[in-house]
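mind reviewing both lines:
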Amino acid sequence: MPEEIKSAGSERPRGAGRSVALLRSRFNAAVVDGLLAGAKSELLACGVVDEDIEVFEVPGAFELPLAAREAGRTGRFDAIVALGAVIRGETDHYEHIARAATHGLEAAARETAVPVGFGLLTVVRAEQALERSRPGPDNKGAEAARAALALAEALDGIRDGIRDGSGG
Protein backbone atom coordinates (compact mmCIF):
# COMPACT_ATOMS: atom_id res chain seq x y z
CA MET A 1 0.00 0.00 0.00
CA PRO A 2 1.47 3.41 -0.92
CA GLU A 3 2.70 5.39 2.09
CA GLU A 4 0.62 8.45 1.24
CA ILE A 5 -2.52 6.35 1.70
CA LYS A 6 -1.43 5.05 5.10
CA SER A 7 -0.15 8.40 6.37
CA ALA A 8 -2.11 10.80 8.56
CA GLY A 9 -0.05 13.62 7.08
CA SER A 10 3.10 15.26 8.31
CA GLU A 11 1.72 18.53 9.63
CA ARG A 12 2.77 19.03 13.22
CA PRO A 13 0.06 19.86 15.76
CA ARG A 14 0.66 22.69 18.23
CA GLY A 15 2.09 21.44 21.49
CA ALA A 16 2.86 24.76 23.15
CA GLY A 17 1.25 24.98 26.57
CA ARG A 18 0.42 21.27 26.68
CA SER A 19 1.43 18.76 29.32
CA VAL A 20 2.09 15.19 28.20
CA ALA A 21 2.58 11.90 30.06
CA LEU A 22 4.83 9.36 28.35
CA LEU A 23 4.15 5.84 29.61
CA ARG A 24 7.13 3.59 29.00
CA SER A 25 6.99 -0.20 29.24
CA ARG A 26 10.21 -1.70 30.66
CA PHE A 27 9.68 -4.97 28.76
CA ASN A 28 11.54 -5.02 25.42
CA ALA A 29 13.58 -2.05 26.62
CA ALA A 30 15.84 -1.81 23.56
CA VAL A 31 12.78 -1.18 21.39
CA VAL A 32 10.91 1.02 23.84
CA ASP A 33 13.96 3.24 24.40
CA GLY A 34 13.83 4.13 20.70
CA LEU A 35 10.09 4.78 20.85
CA LEU A 36 10.58 7.01 23.89
CA ALA A 37 13.34 9.00 22.20
CA GLY A 38 11.17 9.45 19.10
CA ALA A 39 8.13 10.52 21.11
CA LYS A 40 10.04 12.99 23.23
CA SER A 41 11.81 14.48 20.21
CA GLU A 42 8.50 14.90 18.37
CA LEU A 43 6.82 16.52 21.37
CA LEU A 44 9.65 19.04 21.63
CA ALA A 45 9.47 19.70 17.87
CA CYS A 46 5.73 20.39 18.27
CA GLY A 47 6.43 22.98 20.96
CA VAL A 48 5.87 21.04 24.19
CA VAL A 49 8.52 22.19 26.67
CA ASP A 50 10.69 19.61 28.38
CA GLU A 51 9.31 20.51 31.82
CA ASP A 52 5.81 19.60 30.62
CA ILE A 53 6.81 16.06 29.59
CA GLU A 54 6.69 13.44 32.34
CA VAL A 55 7.90 9.88 31.84
CA PHE A 56 6.40 7.03 33.86
CA GLU A 57 7.63 3.44 33.71
CA VAL A 58 5.41 0.39 33.92
CA PRO A 59 6.49 -3.28 33.89
CA GLY A 60 5.04 -4.25 30.50
CA ALA A 61 2.42 -3.62 27.83
CA PHE A 62 -0.34 -5.21 29.91
CA GLU A 63 0.13 -2.50 32.55
CA LEU A 64 -0.05 0.44 30.14
CA PRO A 65 -3.87 0.80 30.20
CA LEU A 66 -4.15 1.18 33.97
CA ALA A 67 -1.32 3.70 33.99
CA ALA A 68 -3.01 5.60 31.13
CA ARG A 69 -6.31 5.68 32.96
CA GLU A 70 -4.72 6.96 36.15
CA ALA A 71 -2.66 9.59 34.30
CA GLY A 72 -5.85 10.76 32.59
CA ARG A 73 -7.76 10.91 35.86
CA THR A 74 -5.22 13.26 37.45
CA GLY A 75 -6.30 16.14 35.22
CA ARG A 76 -2.62 17.11 34.84
CA PHE A 77 -2.16 15.98 31.24
CA ASP A 78 -3.52 17.20 27.93
CA ALA A 79 -2.33 14.02 26.23
CA ILE A 80 -0.85 10.63 27.07
CA VAL A 81 1.44 8.52 24.91
CA ALA A 82 1.67 4.78 25.66
CA LEU A 83 4.90 3.16 24.48
CA GLY A 84 5.63 -0.55 24.42
CA ALA A 85 6.32 -3.57 22.24
CA VAL A 86 4.69 -6.97 22.09
CA ILE A 87 6.64 -9.41 19.96
CA ARG A 88 5.10 -12.73 18.90
CA GLY A 89 6.63 -15.78 20.53
CA GLU A 90 5.93 -19.50 20.35
CA THR A 91 2.64 -19.37 22.31
CA ASP A 92 -0.58 -17.40 22.02
CA HIS A 93 0.45 -15.15 24.96
CA TYR A 94 1.25 -12.42 22.40
CA GLU A 95 -2.34 -12.24 21.20
CA HIS A 96 -3.78 -11.97 24.70
CA ILE A 97 -1.40 -9.19 25.76
CA ALA A 98 -1.72 -7.26 22.50
CA ARG A 99 -5.53 -7.44 22.59
CA ALA A 100 -5.84 -6.54 26.28
CA ALA A 101 -3.43 -3.62 25.99
CA THR A 102 -5.08 -2.29 22.85
CA HIS A 103 -8.60 -2.45 24.26
CA GLY A 104 -7.43 -1.12 27.61
CA LEU A 105 -5.75 1.93 26.10
CA GLU A 106 -8.84 2.71 24.06
CA ALA A 107 -10.99 2.40 27.19
CA ALA A 108 -8.65 4.67 29.17
CA ALA A 109 -9.00 7.38 26.54
CA ARG A 110 -12.80 7.04 26.49
CA GLU A 111 -13.13 6.98 30.28
CA THR A 112 -10.91 10.01 30.89
CA ALA A 113 -11.51 12.02 27.67
CA VAL A 114 -7.74 12.50 27.46
CA PRO A 115 -6.14 11.53 24.13
CA VAL A 116 -3.95 8.43 24.33
CA GLY A 117 -1.36 8.04 21.59
CA PHE A 118 -0.99 4.38 20.62
CA GLY A 119 2.74 3.72 20.58
CA LEU A 120 2.40 0.00 21.27
CA LEU A 121 4.11 -2.08 18.62
CA THR A 122 2.57 -5.48 17.95
CA VAL A 123 4.92 -7.32 15.63
CA VAL A 124 5.87 -10.81 14.53
CA ARG A 125 9.65 -10.40 14.71
CA ALA A 126 12.03 -8.37 16.88
CA GLU A 127 13.61 -6.90 13.72
CA GLN A 128 10.26 -5.32 12.84
CA ALA A 129 10.07 -3.69 16.27
CA LEU A 130 13.62 -2.37 16.04
CA GLU A 131 12.91 -0.96 12.57
CA ARG A 132 9.86 0.94 13.86
CA SER A 133 11.73 2.33 16.87
CA ARG A 134 14.78 3.71 15.02
CA PRO A 135 15.34 7.47 14.77
CA GLY A 136 13.73 9.02 11.74
CA PRO A 137 10.38 9.67 10.09
CA ASP A 138 9.11 6.09 10.57
CA ASN A 139 9.55 6.07 14.36
CA LYS A 140 6.21 4.94 15.80
CA GLY A 141 6.81 6.70 19.13
CA ALA A 142 6.99 10.00 17.27
CA GLU A 143 3.89 9.09 15.30
CA ALA A 144 1.95 8.27 18.50
CA ALA A 145 3.03 11.54 20.12
CA ARG A 146 1.94 13.52 17.06
CA ALA A 147 -1.43 11.72 17.00
CA ALA A 148 -2.08 12.41 20.70
CA LEU A 149 -1.35 16.12 20.25
CA ALA A 150 -3.45 16.29 17.09
CA LEU A 151 -6.41 14.76 18.90
CA ALA A 152 -5.95 17.15 21.84
CA GLU A 153 -6.07 20.01 19.34
CA ALA A 154 -9.19 18.59 17.65
CA LEU A 155 -10.93 18.08 20.98
CA ASP A 156 -10.18 21.69 21.93
CA GLY A 157 -11.97 22.79 18.76
CA ILE A 158 -14.94 20.54 19.47
CA ARG A 159 -15.19 21.70 23.07
CA ASP A 160 -14.81 25.37 22.14
CA GLY A 161 -17.62 24.97 19.59
CA ILE A 162 -19.87 23.50 22.26
CA ARG A 163 -19.00 26.22 24.78
CA ASP A 164 -19.56 29.13 22.39
CA GLY A 165 -22.89 27.75 21.19
CA SER A 166 -21.89 27.18 17.59
CA GLY A 167 -22.11 23.41 18.07
CA GLY A 168 -19.20 22.69 15.74
Remarks:
- Residues 137 and 161 are 33 Å apart (CA to CA).
- The first helix runs from residue 3 to 6.
